[in-house]
Amino acid sequence: MYCLHLLRCPVCHTAMEREGTILRCAHSHTFDIAKEGYVNLLRKKLAGDTKEMVQARRSFLERGSYQPLADTLNTLVSTYLHEQTSPINVLDAGCGEGYYLGRVQQSLPQQSCLLGLDVAKDAVRMAAKRYPSSSFVVANLKEQLVLADECIHVLLNIFAPRNPVEFARVMVPSGRLIVVIPGVEHMAQLRSTLPLLQIEENKQQHVVEQFAPYFTLLDVVPVSYELDLRGEEVQQLVMMTPNYWHLSDEARMAMNAIQALRTQIAFLCLVFEKKK
Description:
Layout: E1 16-19, E2 22-25, E3 30-32, E4 39-40, H1 51-62, H2 67-81, E5 89-93, H3 99-104, E6 113-118, H4 121-130, E7 135-138, E8 152-158, H5 164-170, E9 171-182, H6 188-193, H7 203-211, E10 215-230, H8 231-239, H9 249-257, E11 260-274
Helix pairs in contact: 1-8
């Protein structure tokens, strides 16, 4: 566990040490380290993305379909790096199978610590196997984070649950928070073809208001382009999102019948600075 010094016991919130294949805190709470290198710090089992959703996401992302977003995140992190004089700690809160954290790693000094948290065990296992130089933990983003106070310099939150109070607690003063949400036109053509979940109205404003007590909005960086999808890619794009849980049998048949489709892709990267 390269980022062990950042972690805290989910039961008593004390620091942990590694003893062979386990982590042990000062009060002797122990947690097994999986053979892939990750650790499960969930206090109770929770449902996350299914194995099918995670596999669909990896296949879709590895085609480079969201590479423009990954490139934008790298640029935003690199810009922050110019303000720093020492290695940084990066947290991907809701890391999934590790795609974005793996790309950001390319922009960081070797001494930097990269940590991914996700509630989905299958996703974390997949991430740990693919990106062994980063650390991955199964954890619940909606509760107290299993991290020390003021230890994170850059926090990525990409289509994942948001926890403003805890994000503020674990970030250093003036640290960067980058929240990625879908833009209004995201998958517009696909949404007109299939009965997918609608994007929340005024989502950007809602997110900014959520974080306002603890963070200052510095910038909003849009990422927008058109994407040509084949039938299999359409299925993967739908399956890797919450839409997967809501499709009727009729909608699934309609999805499987699509052979090719060109759709708009639109994201907003909300860049925040933690208030001092």
